[in-house]
Amino acid sequence: MAGRLTGKVALVTGAGDPRSIGWGIAVALADEGADVIVNDINPAGLDTRVADLQAKGVRGLGIQGNIADVNAVEAMVAQGVAAFGRLDVLAANAGVIRWEHFLDITPQNARLVLDVNLKGTITCCRAAARQMIAQGEGGRIIITSSVQASMHFPVTPVYGATKHAMFPFVGTLALELAPHNITVNHIGPGWVRSALNDKAPDQQTAEGIEGNRQAVPLKRDGLPEEMGRAVAYYAGPDGAYVTGTYLRVDGGLGIGKYSI
Amino acid sequence: MNLANKTALLTGPMDALLIGVGKALHEAGADILLGHLPSDEQAAIVAAGQIGARVIALTPDNPDSLALQIEAAGEIDICIIAPHSHLYKPFMEVTDAEWDTAISGNFEQALWLSQALARQWIKAGRGGRIIFLSSIAARLPLTHLSAPGTTLGALRALAKMAAVDLAPHDITVNVIELGWVDTPALPTEVRSHILDGTPTGRLIDPAEVGALCVFLASELASSITGETHTLDGGYSLTRSAGTEPLVRG
Ligand SMILES: NC(=O)c1ccc[n+]([C@@H]2O[C@H](COP(=O)([O-])OP(=O)(O)OC[C@H]3O[C@@H](n4cnc5c(N)ncnc54)[C@H](O)[C@@H]3O)[C@@H](O)[C@H]2O)c1
User: Fold this and answer.
1) Alpha carbon of B187: minimum distance to chain A alpha carbons (Å)
2) What is the CATH number of the domain that holds A211?
3) B107 at the A interface (CB within 8 A)?
4) CB 3.0-4.6 Å disulfide test: which of A151, B62, B202, B204 passes with B181?
5) What are the φ/ψ torsions at residue A61 (nearest 5 degrees)?
């Protein structure tokens, strides 16, 4: 059965870990028939992810690479296009987090978060957009920002800053790439129990985990595939007229907290 | 509004905006310290001469030496930080190096300078005022302003989170998002286009930015923190997005 993304090629960054949002995105896109290139800085899970994609009847390709490295990003897009012939969808998803209040921010951690979440995301968008413009058939860029784009947690100021920055970034990009029929949007996951949060200070006790859950109006964690289906919406025909928007997928966590 | 016995540290490009703000703070009674990048020393000396300020070299891209420079500068009560990058360029043409410059000059340097000051104020048991000068591009997606917009958007969020943590120490953090300021750097061919979209029908005078800074730095404003203040003559109400003033000329 042809899916809504059959014949499309998608690249998802930060998708090597089976618990990750990136993998949830890759699965959701593959379920719609897309061929999927999965990237991760950590090569460990990539072969298995590719086998899982192929088992779904789509083409899969794993590319190890650091999105904070401009040359690696250019090489990744080139390698993906060489293998699958084109690029239609970019899910710029890879990101890192560090917990340091403002007074404790260290140059080392700030550098890492800025390099990956800001610079890396920007570089991926530019490299993918260049390919999409050359193809001349439009494209879809979906960035994984965070509920932190719109509500602030002082325990993660640099992370939150990189996520909030996606509002002006996505807006400007959506305007500038609209003439090429490339849409640009971002999704804001709430709590997803991926490895990202394993070291979160408030996730170290059962009470802390439960406390986070209780703060969510729908009283549960989000699942990576739920983030993935939001991306699939933006990537598919239903999302064709939607650009420059932000979709919280957070069980209501951000309701009434648009304070940035 | 009286800033007598207060010292204000102003940093950023040594342009008409910073000089105008310095003038306003000086007229309100504050001593002015112009913090300049090592490469801006000459410009800083000239600017300081116009407003009776002292100058001090800062290396805000090196947090360790910056902390020492701040300590050596003596007592500071107010810190005003202006962004360095206003790059106007289509996103697809912004180079990697230009992104680095924007991230450093509009976000990181402001982070390290405000953090160094806050740490010192807390150690000394005194309050303080941090004001980030920014642009409406941080809130409104303006075409060809992806680099300043994105990096100043990051700064706006940082200010909110810093404000929460610093409030118990009597330190306020505010952002002023500016529209089009009347400086010699603004090309004449874009003036009329900008004025068309500005309900007040005129550009922003640096003295007006200074007046808001004086207020935010004063005792009267001690409860105002983490806020973004738009100062744009209403430009963002009419020309909110997609404006390409330099392209349309
Ligand atoms: N988990 C949450 O609750 C949550 C909430 C909001 C937003 N997010 C965002 O979702 C995105 C995905 O996060 P996640 O929860 O799946 O995290 P995760 O840590 O589980 O997965 C991220 C993956 O990205 C990879 N990665 C890290 N740095 C990289 C780099 N420089 N280049 C390439 N790959 C890199 C990691 O190896 C990892 O496999 C991130 O942008 C994150 O900020 C997560």
Assistant:
1) 22
2) 3.40.50.720
3) yes
4) B204
5) -145, 130
Query: B92 touching A, CB under 8 A?
Result: yes
- Which residues in chain B have Cβ-Cβ distances shorter than 8 Å to A168? 137-141, 146, 149-150, 152-153
State the closest ligand 1 atom to the C-alpha of A163, by its place in the atom list counted from 1.
43
Q: Judge whether A258 lies within some domain.
A: no
Average pLDDT (A194-208) is 92
B175 Cα–ligand 1 center, Å: 30
In this predicted structure, what is the pLDDT of residue B193? 77
Confidence of residue B245 (pLDDT cuts 50, 70, 90): very low
Element (H, E) at B55: strand B54-57
Residue B17 has pLDDT above 90, yes or no: yes
Shortest Cα distance, chain A CAs vs residue B148, angstroms: 9
Task: Tell me the longest C-alpha to C-alpha distance in chain B.
Answer: 52
Q: In what order do the strands lie in the sheet with B7-11?
A: B54-57, B31-36, B7-11, B78-81, B128-135, B171-178, B228-231
| CATH code matching the domain that covers B7-238, chosen among 2.60.40.10, 3.40.50.300, 1.10.10.10, 3.40.50.720 | 3.40.50.720
| Domain coverage including residue A63 | 9-251
Q: Which residues pair with B135 in a beta bridge?
A: B178
Residue A145 annotated in active site = yes
Catalytic residue among A145, A194, A233, A234: A145
Number of domains in chain A: 1
User: Could you give the CA distance from residue A59 to residue B94 in angstroms, rounded to a whole number?
Assistant: 33
Question: What residue type is assigned to position B237 of the chain?
Answer: L
Average pLDDT over residues A61-65: 98
